[in-house]
Write a structure and sequence with these properties.
Largest sheet: 7 strands, parallel
Helix content: 40-55%
Number of helices: 17
Strand order of the largest sheet: 3-2-1-4-5-6-7
Mean pLDDT: 93
Shape: globular
Strand content: 5-15%
CATH class of the largest domain: Alpha Beta
Order of helices and strands: EHEEHHHEHEHEHHEEHHEHEHEHEHEHHH
Protein name: UDP-glycosyltransferase
Distance between the termini: 12 Å
Radius of gyration: 22 Å
CATH architecture of the largest domain: 3-Layer(aba) Sandwich
Number of strands: 13
Length: 418
């Protein structure tokens, strides 16, 4: 049995979609029979049955810790950033460096004789990767998981921007690409995209999509949700509406759908669950005009969002209106497992549309409200007349997201290690 040490920033599934994705991967590895030990920086005790799950302790009583707390307290109480220059000069904050050192100390203490070391991160942080660079003797065992483009200027338009200290961050990821024996990406397009900036990723890279293992409705009993009605045709977008994810095309399409099919005003819902602060003014105004449009505006728990996804008539995956979208959204496995039709509102060159196939019917650019409204009309009448046909039915994608495919990819990755 191969043994894996997983170094991960968070396994709290309610903290972010990234943490949910990392937990699914961890559970898939456990299900495949790997001996897994987890070092996590979640700052709370989290137990996983049958696994040695160790919470990384933050290093205190050192200069970096004192400086990081001083900066935070002064900023909080006096609204003055004493060390705004630090990120520009050193690339990262005092807190980042102290966190990296804390993770490294835990690796040093708890690493034994594991065959491989997976570093998993989420959001805009790759602290576990940063920590792993301190162990040259372990590079041959290192599997660096790259969940998103990084640094941020490597994002495709309209996302990309330059951060303070971007040159240091760029060198950091170059070091990761050059020194990790293996690299893993959740998306083929993401691996190719990052390979344009750091060519060695194309040599070391493998694709392991977000896992569908252990995805289920947490509450078997129906949740009492005021905004949800099982008896209505429900179009759902679950997930944060970032500034670049413009909901206008979808909302305008829904209004056009209601105009063309007046009866749907009484038996349909458009639900937007997740933080939508970037579009607050527009959505609040539209809610006053359309009683069947619901926007949570704020974060919705994983259990609640997953529950509604299971029962929605149509699940929407909304991406930025761009030339390319190399991301595989963390909710994609949940949408596939629900077996409801997916409406992909994304560029043609996107990972979701690549997996669905370029001939997939319910896909278009997110701003094309006329086409989206036509999709809604067709799906509505399918739901009304023959609801059993309102299914995704994609066993090929289910297989791609399975532990069997994960094992196949790991076998190919480690072929020279056997």
């Amino acid at each position: 049995m191969r043994k894996i040490l997983i170094v991960v920033e968070s396994i709290d599934v309610n903290s972010s979609s990234g943490a949910k994705g990392r937990m699914s991967l961890i559970k898939s590895l456990i299900a495949l029979g790997y001996g897994v030990k987890i070092l996590h920086y979640t700052r709370k005790n989290i137990e996983i049955e049958g696994v040695d799950c160790i919470s990384i302790k933050e290093l205190k009583y050192n200069l970096l810790y004192v400086l990081s707390r001083t900066r935070r307290l002064v900023l909080r109480h006096f609204k003055v950033d004493l060390f705004s220059w630090v990120d520009s000069v050193f690339g990262f904050s005092f807190t980042y460096y102290n966190d990296s050192n804390s993770i490294a100390a835990s690796i040093r203490k708890h690493y034994t004789d594991e065959d491989y070391i997976f570093t998993l991160s989420h959001g805009g942080n790759f602290k576990s990767h940063h920590a792993m660079l301190k162990f040259p003797k372990l590079y041959k065992k290192w599997v660096a998981y790259m969940h998103d483009p990084y640094p941020f200027h490597c994002y495709p338009k309209p996302y990309n921007w330059y951060e303070k200290g971007y040159e240091v961050k760029e060198q950091f990821i170059k070091d990761v690409s050059d020194k990790a024996e293996f690299s893993v990406f959740p998306s083929l397009l993401l691996m190719q995209w990052m390979g344009n900036y750091f060519p060695n990723f194309l040599k070391t890279g493998s694709v392991i999509p977000h896992q569908s293992y252990d995805l289920e409705i947490r509450n078997k009993r129906p949740l009492k949700l005021e905004y949800f009605d099982f008896n209505k045709f429900t179009i759902l977008h679950a997930g944060n509406l970032l500034k670049q994810r413009q909901p206008q095309g979808l909302v305008e399409a829904y209004k056009l759908f209601l105009k063309k099919i007046p009866e749907a005003k009484q038996n349909s819902l458009l639900l937007l669950l997740g933080d939508a602060s970037e579009h607050k003014e527009y959505l609040l105004e539209e809610k006053t005009k359309c009683s069947s449009l619901y926007c949570s505006m704020n974060y919705v728990s994983f259990d609640e969002a997953n529950y509604v996804q299971e029962y929605a008539s149509v699940n929407v995956i909304l991406e930025a209106d761009a030339d390319i979208s190399p991301f595989l959204p963390g909710k994609f496995p949940h949408c596939v497992k629900s077996n409801s039709p997916i409406m992909s509102l994304a560029p043609e060159q996107s990972e979701v549309r690549r997996l669905l196939g370029l001939d997939y019917k319910y896909a278009c650019r997110p701003s094309d409200s006329t086409v989206i409204s036509e999709f809604l009309i067709e799906l509505y009448f399918l739901w009304k007349e023959t609801p059993e046909k309102l299914k995704l039915n994609r066993p090929d994608i289910e297989g791609y997201l399975s532990t069997e495919f994960l094992q196949k990819q790991l076998n190919a990755m480690f072929k020279n290690e056997q």
